[in-house]
Amino acid sequence: MGAGNTQTRRRAVPWLLLALWVGVLAVVSPFAAKLADVQHDRITDYLPASADSTKVAELQEQLPGGETTQLVLVYHRDGGLTPADREIAERQVARIAGEHELTADPRGVPAADGATLMYPVATNEPGSDEDLRDAFVEDVRDTAHSTDGLTVEVGGPGALNTDAAKVYDSLGGPLLYTTVAVVAVLLILIYRSPVLWLVPLVVAGIADYLSMGVAYGLNQAFGTTVSGQSSGIMTILVFGAGTDYALLIVSRYREELRRVERPYEAMIAALRGCGPAVLASSGTVAAGLLCLLAADLNSNRGMGPLGTVGVLCALVAMLTLLPAILVLLGRRVFWPLVPAFGSTPRARRSLFAAMGSSAGRRPVTVLVSGALALGALALGALNLPGSLKQEDSFVDRPESVAAMRTLAAAYPESSGQPITVMTPTGRAEATVTAIRATDGVDSATPGRAGEGWTEISVLASAPPQTPAETRTIETLRDRLDGSYVGGPSAQQLDLKDTNARDRLVVVPIVLVSVLLILIALLRSLVAPLLLVAAVVAVWGAALGLGGLVFEPVFGFEGTDPGLGLLSFVFLVALGVDYGIFLMHRMREESLAGAEPAAAALTALRTTGGVIASAGLVLAATFSVLMNMGLVQLVELGFVIAVGVLLDTFLVRTYLVTSASVALGRKVWWPGRMSKAPAPETAVRQPERV
User: Fold this and answer.
1) Which pick of 155, 181, 295, 469 has the fewest CB atoms within 10 Å?
2) Are 668 and 528 in contact (CB under 8 A)?
């Protein structure tokens, strides 16, 4: 009777878990639907919290009318503008001025070559509302249109922001659909089952929906920044990391079904076997991402909590909902390759066994050769192009970028992109005088005033984002005590400086956090140091490969200043995952009495296939970013995808294995396994991951 009640309770557990998830989704659903409402891609969401340019943007929002939308209308005809062209330009600009409230009457500025005419246009009409800004820009573009060989382009900071917002708005749907499609194809190839692939995919989708609700809650409770970039990365992490965890759990569950008759007991055994490694790996990723909270850059600091939410939601779903569904579906979910009770898997030649054998025969040679290969690839980082300019950040050149390039060619000795200075109103006159006396300044015009601050528009004599303009910005900041210097060029300068500062702060914190978690898990010092050194080498090699292809192959004219930090955090946190799976199994084999070399080769043979599958899925999900329209996302996706593949097929299979064989028991120093095993440990059975 007692046994029957126990079986009844066990059969009820999966149904209770399903009911619990239905309740959770019912509670979370209203909040998940609101995440898009709090997602913003304002310039302040991507700027350093403490930078001058951020202060300027925030103060501009407090002035009457809110933030200023600045545009430049560029009229151009090859061979020279005709009188009719100038009349068309005047009519179009007059119509814009009549339909919108501009801060000043637009005045045409002809180029020396007579082929180009620009009209600076500024308005406070949209204020700080992004939708109104985008509508204003599109209305101006509809009015100022090309005709009969006369090219009309709308550029300036407002147009650039609108074009960038279009790209970020497009991330949500295409990013999700592409990620789901990529994961689905890989799962079908891995499982070779018409049904099984769908279960992890559905669970990952539910975890993504849960993460959206939790992310909204974080925003409401703590004001966490939610941008298109951070929410897109969160989705990728849910599907990438979640599918990795599912691969490990399903692989172990399939193995246990051959030894255990009832699916419920088989799943319990599977979770006991691989659960600790999954928990440790997700904890490492979460800890690494949370280190981004130490960053000064708003976009990076906001990505930390959202990425952590994605990983933890994936973990919870894969440890609860996935097992419940698999148990309820029973063995038939594996059809046509159903693991029968008491059966043994078909013997076949293992690629990873062959790779492990080659690493085991000459471990030092393999280790040195692999390290030299990674070092050689890392040298490619010296070929990385310089910092990415704002106009070069689009994969496909939008109208705003085309306008900026036309301006740069037609007005080589002047800037069409103003520098904005915010100064206390009581010192406005003296500040304007000081600005006009500064080398490199062409003009300074006071504008709006309010809340104790006055806005001054400054035009440099040098083109935007050139060394000469940068010197002008730095000189103004040195001379104008108590004032803030901002604008698009100053923002790019602050981004570069802050990313350099964040690397110095965040990278050591990530390394220490990951190292401490590995020491606690593996109870060793040498093995964690080996894993951390391996992922750092992978990061360097992946960046080096980026240096070899970004400009020569992709044609990118710059590197995003945040690429180094973000790729480091993701590659270290995610790369250590696979090291945990491998070393955890190696440790269990050693506890069971295996010699160091045998333990290393057994760990590779038994976990290599799962790690390879997980690595392919994770690399594929991040490669989805390469299909997006922003250069910084393409670069980030490439470096992480390449790094994951290097880590999966070179570092884990060859370098970590060969290093473990070469070090022998010293790999577990100073733990007790670094010494000869005690007699009682030799009879322990290994727990398979």
Assistant:
1) 181
2) no
